[in-house]
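Dissemination and training. As part of the outreach component of the grant, students in the summer workshop were shown how a complex can be specified as a set of sequence lines and then modelled as a single object. The example used during the hands-on session is reproduced here so that future cohorts can follow it. Participants entered these lines:
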Amino acid sequence: MINRQWLLASRPKGSIEDTNFSYKECEVPNRELKPNEILVKNLLFLCAPTMRNWMSPPGNSLYPSIPLGSPIMAPAIAVVIESGSAEYAPGDRVSTRAGWQDYEILSTDLVPVGKIPDEMTSVDAMGKFGLNSLTGYFGMLEVGQPKENDVVVVSGAAGATGSVAAQIARIKGCRVIGIAGGEQKCQWLTEDCQLDGAINYKNRNVEKELRDLCPDGINIYYDNVGGDILQAAIENMAVKGRIVLCGQISSYNDEKPAEGPRNMMRLIYGSITMQGFLTRNYTDNFPSAIGNLKTWYEQGKVLFKQDVREGFENLPLIYRALFDGSNDGVLLVQINSD
Amino acid sequence: MINRQWLLASRPKGSIEDTNFSYKECEVPNRELKPNEILVKNLLFLCAPTMRNWMSPPGNSLYPSIPLGSPIMAPAIAVVIESGSAEYAPGDRVSTRAGWQDYEILSTDLVPVGKIPDEMTSVDAMGKFGLNSLTGYFGMLEVGQPKENDVVVVSGAAGATGSVAAQIARIKGCRVIGIAGGEQKCQWLTEDCQLDGAINYKNRNVEKELRDLCPDGINIYYDNVGGDILQAAIENMAVKGRIVLCGQISSYNDEKPAEGPRNMMRLIYGSITMQGFLTRNYTDNFPSAIGNLKTWYEQGKVLFKQDVREGFENLPLIYRALFDGSNDGVLLVQINSD
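and obtained this result:
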């Protein structure tokens, strides 16, 4: 048994390059496990935009920085092979944060580990009921707090998080406009997800389109991208509008940190609120969120796209799809079969 | 009787210059008043930082732009000379928004007009119980929502709005740090206002001082200035901290609009909320605010500094004191005696 690994060879400057990763094969860890350790085999990785931030140098204690020479860190589904812990038995599947490698010993004290119910597939655990969906759920409901007839705009609306956020706003009786890159994505949003409108930011003037589509202003802007699109939304916010800060993917590849609003007086004169959040703030409510999402998926009220790819060797290449938008829904990589 | 006027001769580019104003003398308006019109004599003007924004070109419908060639617009106390309205009688003093001129006809439908109680001096109506104080009151209590033991930082803390906001946070049991320009101002904050600390931004590294003074992070940052000091506060916010956006005076004289946070991910990873507000959102609560402020002033729990100057001819020069910080408290200009 060998343990394949993708290590962080160098920190990306701007866009991620091949040279930022190095492939290595080593032995599977083989030592006595402590009471809070489990040996796992990783099955499935989530490609999350924020992992790009984890590849940046340390310095901000609010999020982790992958050490140079260590496996790339990612949300993962894994199966327990051997357990030192009374809580986990061999064969249990867990949702956790793992390295881009086949096998590893996890300390359940140091990384979040949650058991997956037997009836839930690994793909669903990481997709439909995974981090992105929960982020869209809590960001829209807890931070955005949509009310009937609110005008809601979601950027990155065809992505895993954005599409859940947008469709939940629609369930709550809002008028919902999605912003996405490409005609096909926009068509999916209006025809399949039944949003009230969609803007293809690749060939449209987003600020002008928002002005036309939201003449009375935007009540809730759910932001996954930041940059110019955030600014276009700010210019069109209604008085007392709320901006949900979920992500800033448009600038994760920039050398400079993502910059904020270019006209702060607009926030003051408009009595606008901008609020950042993390999904882990709402851990206690995960079970009820999963229950509600399950109902909405079954009723067809929320559509969800999973873009499942294969092959450990392809991880670096697949991950980059997030940044050119060529993924079609939540991007998962199956590296070992369940 | 002549009517002295200061007109907007040209729009400031950067700092306000003498040439942006022109002095004129004309006749006092003399025509029949309509039912909602009053002829007033202006007594006292408030020098408000936001008037600098009103001198900018039109384009943002959220705030007014003074037309070129018109009198500079300012919050004012005036006395009614002649009234077409059943609500106002000659001799009534009103708080309103007027032009830099002695006399004018106001339409009570178009500008906010509020009668001043007989027992309140004009200076107190515009100062202790005026716009700045109410802004500090509502910004801290309604937007900031301070809880006991919160760590609160206020910029522009020796100014009229900031000092009220800071002292109210202290009344609510918070640990309060003020940021101000100059040792004398800082001394007033810690010795007279009994704040827990003060930082002189003119000769200190604000980010480092905040890190030292607030090792567990800032729960509420009340921002009057924006720019680098806002950024220094953002770097030191506690998780789930709240930023009250009151003003951005550090950049009102810039050609570019005030820019916001330089690292949006800090807001996301820190679950930070930034909220802009306008005092007029809370009009219904003005009477209770004035009641509470009165009690606190009488009990000596809130100190308030009024910098009252004189002379219509000095208006442009006096107004500029706001931007070099040479005013000592709320800046009022008495142009005619009560």
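The interface with chain A takes residues 53, 60, 62-63, 226, 240, 245-248, 257-278, 281 of chain B (CB under 8 Å). Students were then asked to discuss how this feature might be tested experimentally.
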